Amino acid sequence: MSPSGGGRAAYSIVTNQPFAKQGSRPAGPVLGVETSCDETGVAVFDRARGLLAHTLYSQIRMHADYGGVVPELASRDHVRKLLPLVEETLKRAGLGVADLGGVAYTAGPGLVGALLVGATVARSLAWALGLPAIGVHHMEGHLLAPLLEADPPAPPFVALLVSGGHSMLIEVGAIGRYRLLGDTLDDAAGEAFDKTAKLMDLPYPGGPALAKLAEQGHPGAFRFSRPMTDRPGLDFSFSGLKTQVLLAWQASDRSGQTRADIARAFEDAIVETLAIKCRRALAATGARSLVVAGGVGANRRLRAALAEAGAKEGFRTYFPRPEFCTDNGAMIALAGALRLEAGQLESAAIKVQPRWDLASLPPVA
Ligand code: KG4
Ligand code: ZN
Hints:
Helix content: 40-55%
Structural class: alpha/beta
Strand content: 15-25%
Bound molecules: 5'-O-[(R)-(carboxyoxy)(hydroxy)phosphoryl]adenosine, zinc ion
Order of helices and strands: EEEEHHEHEHEEEHHHHEHEHHE
Number of strands: 12
CATH architecture of the largest domain: 2-Layer Sandwich
Shape: globular
Number of domains: 2
C-alpha cells in the first residue's frame, strides 16, 4: 500500500559517516527486515545456502476495524513486534547475531513511520555488530522474490508488479537495471480489489476476500470493461472499474449470488486487462520470460491465466509462492544480499524514502 513516483523526499534521523568500508562483502547470512506497511517480516538469507528462516506478523486484524491501514497504529505495532521476530527468526535459522554477515531493510516506498521503525532497528543492529547494511527498494524486493524459488528466472525478463500501491510493467535487463514500461494512472490493481470489495461490504483486506467470493460467481453473468486495452500503450487505469461495479451492485438485487457474480466479473476484467498488457510488454521488448509479483500475484485466476497464455504463446512464467507475493522479509533479505554481495552499502544514516523511483537504482553488477 505504498505510493510510487519519482519524488526524492528522504527522511533522515541520523547522519553519519560510513562505518563499514565501501566494498566490504557480507561474510555470512543477511538479515532482512520489512516494515513498509502493515506486515512485519524478518528473514535470514544466505547466498550459498538460500533462505534459512523467515517469520511474518500481519497487522491485518488490527486495521480491519478501521477498514484500512492506520499509519500511526502500524508504526507502533512494528515497534512491538520487530525485535521479538528478529530473535525468533535467528532461533529458527539456528544462528546467533554474531553469525550474521549483513543487514538489509526496506527503505521505501512505504509509510514513513513504519519504514523508520525497520530502518532504525536494522541500522542500529548493523552498527552495533559492525556489519554492512543496505536500504532496499520494496518493489525491487517484490520483483526479485521469484529468485527465492527452485527454478529462478534469469534476465532479461518483463516483470508485472501488482500490489496494493503499484501496478507496473518493468523491463529487467539485469538485476538492478529496470526500465518502467507501464504504470497505473490512478488506482493500483490491489487498491482496486480492496476498494471494490469494500463497496460490496466485504471485509478488509478486500483482495483475498473478493477473490474467494469470485470462485462462486457465474462467469459472464456481469461484464465490466478492460480499461485502456482499446488503445496502444502499457499504462493501467482501474478506478473506473470500481464505479462500474458500484453501479451494477446498486442496481442489483444485492443477493449473495449476485455479489459473487459481480466479484467474478470484476476479477475477470482485472485479470484479462493485466494479461493483455503483459503480452504487449513481451512483444515490445522481445523478452520470453514473465515474472509476476506483488500481493495481487497471489491471485489464483491471474496465475492460471498467465501460465496458460505462456504455454500457448511460448513465453515462460515465474511466480513466487503466494506467501512471497505479499509483503515478507525474505524478499528484502534476498535483494539486500545481492546488493551487499556487489559491494553496495550506504552510510550509517537512517534514511527512508516514502516515494522512490525504481528506475533510479544503481545496477547490481
Ligand atoms: O504486496 P502487498 O502485500 O503490499 C503492498 O506492497 O501493497 O499487496 C497487498 C495487496 C492488497 O491490495 C491485497 O488486497 C492484494 O494485494 N491481494 C490480492 C490477493 N492477495 C492479496 N488481490 C487479489 N487476489 C488475491 N488473492
Ligand atoms: Zn508490497
